Amino acid sequence: MQDEYAVVEGCQRQDRTVQRQLYERFAGKLFVVCKRYVKDPDEAEDVLQDSFVKIYRSIGTFRFECPLEAWLKRIVINTALKHLRKQKPWEHTADVQELALLPQPDQSLPMLNYQYLLGLVGELPPGCRTVFNLYAIEGYTHPEIAGLLDIAEGTSKSQYARARNLLQQKLQQDGRPAEDRSS
Amino acid sequence: MNEYNMNEEQNMPDEVWRRTFDEAAETPLPRVWDAIERQLDEPGAGRVVPLWATGLLRPVVWGTGLAAAAVLLVVGFWLARTEPAEQPAVARVQPVEPKQPLAAVRPEQAATTASERAILPNETVAQWSPAPKTKQSANSLVSTGEPETVAATANFNHERSYRKQTGRVDEIEREFSTLLPRAVTRITLTEPVARPATVLLTNTTSNDTPIESIFPAFVEPEQLASRGVQPYEMRPIQRVVWFGPAETDAMAQPAEEQVRVAAKTKWVSVTVMPGVFNPEVSVGVPTYVNSMGFSPNTRAGNESVVSSRGSVAIAVQATAGVQLTDRWSVESGMGYLVGRSTVESPGAQPLYNFAQSGNIANNIPAAMGNLYTDLLRSQMGNVPATLNMGAANDLLISNTNRYANLGSYGNRQTVANNYAYVQVPVQVGYELRPRKRLTLAILGGLITNIFVKNSVDDALTIKAGDGVYQPVALVASMGARFRYRSSERWSASLAGMYQPAITPGTRPDSPVQTQPTTTGLLVGIDYRF
Predict the structure, then answer these.
(1) Nearest-CA neighbor of B506 among B467, B475, B477, B474?
(2) With contacts defined as CB-CB under 8 Å, which chain B residues touch A19?
(3) Which of A72, A109, B97, B393 could form a cystine bridge with B16, CB 3.0-4.6 A?
């Protein structure tokens, strides 16, 4: 934790060596976050790049009110959403209430290889992918997602339901038990 | 209370998905960092709108700005007047019950707070800050069972609820309420937090509780005492206490002393410097005056018999520079200086009087018209007889074996000079405003002036090999330069420069001495690599 303060303060001084340390420490995890939201690897790199530039330029506002990693992740998610917002993948989605179809979270699944899961998420339509990421992985609620993406709450729910169905279908199509893909 | 949590079924994140991705990492390609570094090295991001395009030069805009400044001054003055002389600080604080989550603050309690706040003109927006310094507070933080952690979710929910109750829904609220991933919001408070200032939201009540018992986990009482915090009697309002914990050594260290690794940015510039060039011409101080010819009083002291006045000059330079650190830079290049000046010199009489010589040289140049020109010609090897007699009433030109029969010269004449130099500047710059779009740098260095020629009245052209002027002279250069970076690559410079010579411009044995000085306003365009 003390090291975290030193890193933040170094970045606030725009010490390039410390900035590099921060990058090396978090870039790997944050790159996966980018790839969850943006399928194209080059675009994911762009999002990561933009995110870190934002991080370095706004780290003076970081008040240690939350863990540094959560703060960094939030910026990455914001940047990714801003990137996606240009495409508006969720704009014309029908507001379908599919609560009855909402599958329950797969609590029984063991730890999976993230690359396999990343591939699954990447195959989702952009709108579904974004809602699924925000709801299932980041932990946002549907009203929060609706506010974030400027969509109806029902749209968020239907997109999530659709994502769940697609993922389950894909897992069944693969036909292999999840344990085989454990990391 | 968080409305979302009240009205919404709690989202249950898929632990498998979340855990898998939480632990996943994939190193990006090195080009990403390279791109980030490049972007950070740029002076600023975003499109630059020139000031003149925004209408800032229009009088109405200036008028609006001045009016706004006046309003701010009036409001600030009014606020200053309405502030009490001594700011009462919080002495009575209602602590949150142990083990009671902040998120569980009752709506009516928040509503009361809102109503109280609504009648307070001098309120300050309260921010709840969980980590001022040192250890954990059981009174104000919610334990999650782990001794070193607290659930920050409740705190943010509390703030969100509070803000909603008070109707203060803004961007910050939106950020907190929607973007904070609740699954990963745990804060460890066992490490000291080196923040210069922290805000504590306190709820003032009539319950007299010593401040020492309220804040032990947050701050040492003496810290508050050193900040002028005094007990406060009765004031059923919320108030914000600002205090600054003692700065750590790292924070106390001036930023200027931090070693910074700055990219060695290079640039090239083309500059034009219109200005004034004064060669400061003087003719050797008379060292011997015969009273028969001239009264010493007429040239008392070290007054030169000729004088010069500066006139327009223009210097064109092409320079290249490199930014060594955030603040230091070095630059060099090549330029060409053309400077005009006028010299006032005793002019020749209509009839020369060489009576003292008795031996008028046949080679006295017909163009001889004033002392200054004659001296220059003499140095070039064409010595008029009037300058080489040493008669009784002649004037000895210092450091020479030439005598001027000043009786041969009368009214003063003005002689035009056109100097030309090739310049090789080497300058060091120190940025006073580093990494800004508008930078200010102090410049200092040396310019090597390579003499090219001096045309005197279009009748006499003196070149470097004629033995009058030093082929190379050193000039000090100093000034201040503003540089406005209009884009990533391009910038414009405006500098005031003062360039006095530090070595004579003429040879030691020359009867005419110069010590040129150039003052000008440099305008340039720079391109960064």
Answers:
(1) B467
(2) 40
(3) A109
**Does the B266-528 domain belong in CATH 1.10.1330.10?**
no
- Work out the minimum CA distance from A92 to partner chain B, whole angstroms: 22
- Per-residue pLDDT tens digits for A138-171: 888 899 888 888 888 899 999 998 988 888 888 7
Where are chain B's structural domains? 3-8+87-251, 266-528
DSSP structure string for A46-102? HHHHHHHHHHHHHGGG--SSS-HHHHHHHHHHHHHHHHHHTT-TTTT------GGG-
Q: Token digits for A40? A: 């194209």
Q: Which residues of B touch A57 (CB under 8 A)?
A: 45
User: Which tens digits make up the pLDDT trace of B511-525?
Assistant: 788 889 999 999 999
For residue B7, what is the nearest residue in chain A, using CA coordinates? A143
Average pLDDT over residues B169-188: 43
Structure tokens at B105: 């603050």
pTM of the model: 0.39
Closest in A29, A110, A112 to B25, CB measured: A29
Q: Which of A7-21, B144-158, B429-443 has the highest mean pLDDT?
A: A7-21
Q: What are chain A's domains? A: 2-85 (1.10.1740.10), 99-181 (1.10.10.10)
Neighbours of A52 (CB within 10 A): 28
Those residues with Cβ within 8 angstroms of residue B133's Cβ, 6 or more apart along the chain or in another chain: B192, B193, B195, B198, B218, B219, B245
DSSP structure string for B482-516: EEEE-SSSEEEEEEEEEEEBSS-SB-TT-SEE---
For residue B442, what are its two tokens? 């102090």
pLDDT at B372: 81
